[in-house]
Amino acid sequence: MKKSVFSGLKNFFDGLINKESQASSPSVDEDDTKHSTTVTNPDSIYYVTRESVCDSFFGSVSEGSDSMLAQKIPVSTSTPATHIPFFHIQKSNRALWEAALQNNYELCKDLLDHEIYGESAADSNSKDQQGITALHIAAHEGFINVCEVLLDYGSNTDLNVLNVIKRTPLHLACISGHTEVAQLLVRSGADINLVDIDGNTALHLATEKGHRQLVLWLLTRGPNIFIKNNAGRTPPDLAKSIEILDIFKDYCRRLNLPLPILGMMPMSSHERYRSEPRRVTISDLTAIEENKESGRVTPNDFEVIQELGKGSFGEVYLVRKQDNKNYYAMKVLRKDKVMGQNLIKYAMTERNVLSYVRHPFIVSLNYAFQTPEKLFLILDYCSRGDLGTYLNKEKRFSEPLAKIYVCEVLLALEELHKRDIIFRDLKPDNIVLDEEGHSMLTDFGLSKEGIYDNVTARSFCGSVAYLAPEMIKRQGHGKAVDWYLLGVLLYEMLVGTPPYFSPNREELFRNIQRGLLKIPTHLSQETKELLKDLLQREPAKRLGTRKDAEEVKEHPYFNGVNWDSVLRRELRPSLPKKTPIDDVVIPNEKIYGDMSQFGDRSNQVTGWTFISN
């Protein structure tokens, strides 16, 4: 590198400190500036003085009261600040930090490449004296391409790495309001409920900073909104605007949770809430849930008729509600399996998505409750089974029938993408058919990327067949992954097997990444072109990457489709045979277990209970 690997960092911190010093206007004597002037922005990353910025690039740093990556580090008042080594790791790691700071993701990729640098390749988890990694830097600055490179090319890059004040890259992204970076980190596995040294979660920080869109999105990921920071404040307590407070209020209303308590706003801002009889505090949660209100739903409200399916974490049963005699599908998740394998966030994702998304082609959640041993989701019952079973019976579908299913699934994906939800697990088994034969997306949680190791080898192969190339490579992926999987779905419906399929897992991996796409010659030209465009291995070139669903709809394959008619469910798919119902009630204790401890809250999952309006 022609210039020092430190020069970019030095200029950055010089500029940052000059800017923040002017904003804070510290009162100091000119002669004392070198030793005492500090940055006072509490949300900067590094705590350094003017002296330390210069010194750090020559081997030492002074601890100051503020900085840009490590936040709120208390400065000792009993002893003078001392110089400590700033960089103690190899040059490649320092170069990686600078490349991250300069948003040079190509250089980051090279520095992490062991084929280029061998044992001298940079370590994506390397930390400075304040516990800061390249991912901290990129997340704070909002450099999403750098974040993707660090996650994809780093060796087991730690998403939940803590700096000296216990802040993760997600914390920093939320402070800065970088929604896309936060989404990438969470979808890649960052823990949304980790707390920093002040007890703040990512939601606390986004709320306090007033990042409305980020708060909205974080709430779709099932955060624990009842976590209190060291000051005894929950995220709703930190809302400084009516708009964000309304977000929490609406969220809690939809999910049947206690109302958020009023935040630290001026009293005049609360005018619209004064008509409410009282504030509902976090401590009311126990009392509210223990009250036997008329709308409360318990296991005793349902008769279990028969088992519909079985998975690694529980079962799905056909149930009938006692009062209205309506049929539902009851998904049962064993807490010991879900919590024992740290999969509760996936269960919460499914519960949250299904609770607030209402769409003609997405299964709705009607109720959610729990016992000490199990979690329950009461979903719409789709009486004609799943598309995978129907396809296995028919071997393949005609082009017109496949087109109906593709149109309906496309609209479901469009709705999810509008809400910044990536389905990622589109396959025939996750599409169920309702009474009229329409397709309905289901299973939004436990079948996600990264959970496949928990199933059998055969199931693993089946799941791998529905992975996009970028997912296999563990590259950062966005909404384009769902359009690839739509292509896989269309291909399988028309051919009878997924593209590139092989019973050998390693061969299947290779085929998806490098194999030749074989498209039957008897298919229409428009269908062939759509398959090629959707199954494009390079996400940037894939159909749907630029304008999402609108771009896919504009493909010649969909010429003549009246999308309003599709949305009104006016298309007429074929009607597979209904699943026969053996109307024999299964004893509740066999399904729910020991109900004598139903009120036991020791194993309670916060925020699970739900009653649809």
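the 2nd protein, sequnce then structure:
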Amino acid sequence: MESYKLIKSVLGGIYGAQLGLDDEEAIAAFRKDLQHEPFRKGIETELKKVFGDESLSWEKLMDDCEVSFFETEEEAKSVAKEFLWDVVFPAD
């Protein structure tokens, strides 16, 4: 199973509850990080893999990274898409 280090770093380090950023502030911070080309390329690669990874539990990953607790896998994946995919690939 992939480790998805960059995704975990973003979830815990930007969207994590302990930081206290609201969604807009967190997305702005993530966009700023995306200006660093090597980071952008790495996160793009991980996102393309992770959203096709059937073995990954978004519910568990979001909980482990202290983003939030979700009742369902679908809810967790939807928020992950909003916070990650839609920021990196806004046209998709």
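Helices lie at 5-13, 23-33, 37-50, 58-64, 73-88. The first helix runs from residue 5 to 13.
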